[in-house]
Amino acid sequence: MSRSINASDLRRAAIVTAGVAAALASTALAWPYLAPVPYLLLVAAVVAASRWGSRSSGLFALGLATVGAAFVVPQTTPPVGLIVFVAVGAFLNHLTSGRQGVEAALRASEAELRASWEHSAMGTAVLDRNGLVERLNPAFESTLGYAGSAWTGVAFNYFVHPDDEGAERARFSALMNGVEVSYQHEQRYRRSDGTIIWGRATVSALRDGARTTGALMMIEDVTARRLAEEGLRASEERLRRLFEGLPVGLFQSTPTGKMLAVNPALAQMLGYPSVETLQALNVRDLFADASAYASLRTALEVSHEVSNHHAVLRRHGGDHLTVRISARTARHPSGVTWYDEVSVLDVTERLALEAELLQTQKRETLGRLVGGLAHDFNNLLTAIGGWTEIALRQLGPDAPREDLEEVLKAGRRASALTRQLLVFSRREHVDPEAIDLNEVVRSVSRQLQEQCGDQVKVLPDLAPDLLPIAADPNHIEQILIQLAANGRDAMPRGGRLMIETANVTLDTRYGFAKPARPEPGKYVLLAVTDAGLGMDDHVKAHLFEPFFSTKPGGQGAGLGLATVYSIAKRLNGYVWVYSELDRGTTVKVYFPTVVAPEAPHAAEESTGLADAGAAVPAGAGRVLIVEDDEGVRGVARTVLRGRGYDVIEARSAEEGRRQAAAHAIDLLLTDVVLPGIDGPALAAELRAIQPGLKVLFTSGYTHRVMVSRGVLPPGAEFLEKPFTGSLLVQKVQAALGGAPAGDPSPR
Predict the structure, then answer these.
(1) Does 559 share its domain with 446?
(2) Cα–Cα distances in angstroms (integers) from residue 504 to residues 437, 591, 593, in the given order
(3) pTM above 0.70, yes or no
(4) Looking at the structure, do residues 394 and 536 belong to the same domain, yes or no?
(5) 472: helix, coil or strand?
């Protein structure tokens, strides 16, 4: 390799030239007197000193000069000889001493470089243009496990993992062609024992002027770091799967309420279509009561951990659910809160079950109490009635009898009340038999009409070929009497009392409240509907509680529906009540049949519920749901979206108007009874704006009741509550012009 000429080289050349000139001049002056050989020795000494300049060559040159001087000095005059000797000696000393200092510094620098090369922890190799290894340091050998001799004439990429070799060749070629000056990357290498390591290679071009002569390659073993990173990624993946797979709602948020992470369970719990949609909200927006969120934040700031905090959250669409929240803060050692980790458990169903259990325990406690009292009271009534009858027989034909007869009537009423108490307490002996519900209704219809009076018209609507049920006819009569009495009292100005029967099939998706969800199977339905005052939510919440009555004091014992409920539960049946203020009430009692579930029956009315898991084709279109009940609206929304429909929703007719004005809709699914204007009026308004709009009505009243009252036209598409998802989809498809859904008036 060439190097440039510096100032030190120029000075040395000048000195050598001067010395040679002096020697030649001395030779020329003394030539007449001396033989030329000694002077030639002096000249050789100068040339040797300037040519090699090492300590050994300097000593050799000094010896030549001494020999030459030994011949020259004696043959010259003393001044000339002395001058020549001193000049030559000084000149030779200057040459050798300067070169020796440079050589010492060079040797020290080479020793440092060699030590750095050999003892460096970074594997380093010099490659030629073809990628062949020219030399390498021990660290390089140790990293890949090969002795230096194994690399002779071998290309460095021979030890690269086969999957990475092609990319490495391309990178090295670009470096040799001047496209890159250097490159750095991580890839796999094969050690001599066959193991695979990860190395981070830094490769830089070596240049001679503008020409690339090779490359300097340095490799660092990063296997441990890569394994640690892969372990960390695997751990993060496990945590991610756990986070996303847990059935409990989880989220992370900043102290200001910004969502950092949300798992799918929480999005599903709150009814959001995606995790991203939910994560875009602030946590405080999820709380139905802002003060509940504030109290949670305060508790976290004080104790940094909260357990079993109950709150009401707002679902997507406006529904509410009760949750139990546990949370903790992740904090910096300095005390600054990074984020909150929160778990959310939906306890709405559990609280409903607890409330149902509490009511059951209350009923059982009261049942044991009143059962014992009823038996004792029966004894007293027996005595009162018996002595009254004896007294009446002893009276003469002209004696006043009215007072005693009133006592006897009161005793009979008390006896009937006692029988109710015994039924409620389940202490009355029951001997069920297979009976026809229609026959019981027919046998008691005249009595019911007399009970209700002239202003109330009792209208039985009985399904033919009704399946038999296992019950005591007296208990069924008692249910009919109680429900007819309630219907009569709800219609002080008179009206229609409809009594309907039907064969139905229920499954686990049937729309009962979860604590009272029926077992799948075939049932016989008894539905009694009035057009009376209806009930508000407070009354419905206490409907089956014993001794709860909405009648003025002294006019009701509060055992009517409690008795109905007790009889139905005793027969493994179920009771479902639908009521709207000023719109009337429907009470549906479901009795299990005594035929095998697989036995077909020609007269059975299909509800579309027998095969909830049957495949229902996916739908298309936009459905506007207008329903004031949060639970019904949420079920309909979830089911229809799951079947591919685009769903928008409203809680009132007014909100339904706004939604219809903002969106083009294909089907209006509306409750008949709504706050403000009712469903049929809303449908008429929207059809005036959008002719041909499909409409599907839904109500807890039966289809016959809606038609008989003139609320709906006979041909209106109708879905009766409670309903299942499969029946809803079938009805929506039928309303949109798809496959027919069967009878438009399911039970």
Answers:
(1) yes
(2) 14, 10, 10
(3) no
(4) no
(5) coil
